[in-house]
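Have a think about this chain, tokens included, and walk me through the fold.
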Amino acid sequence: MKEMHQSQYSINSRDNKMYRNMPPLIGVME
């Protein structure tokens, strides 16, 4: 599961706008 999270983290990293629009996801990723 952690590996999958890292994959999404990379994608979100490129999309700062989407990353900021998803505060709950950031907490889960951290």
Q: What stands out?
A: The chain has one domain: 1-30. The chain has a mean pLDDT of 60. Residues 1-30 form one domain.
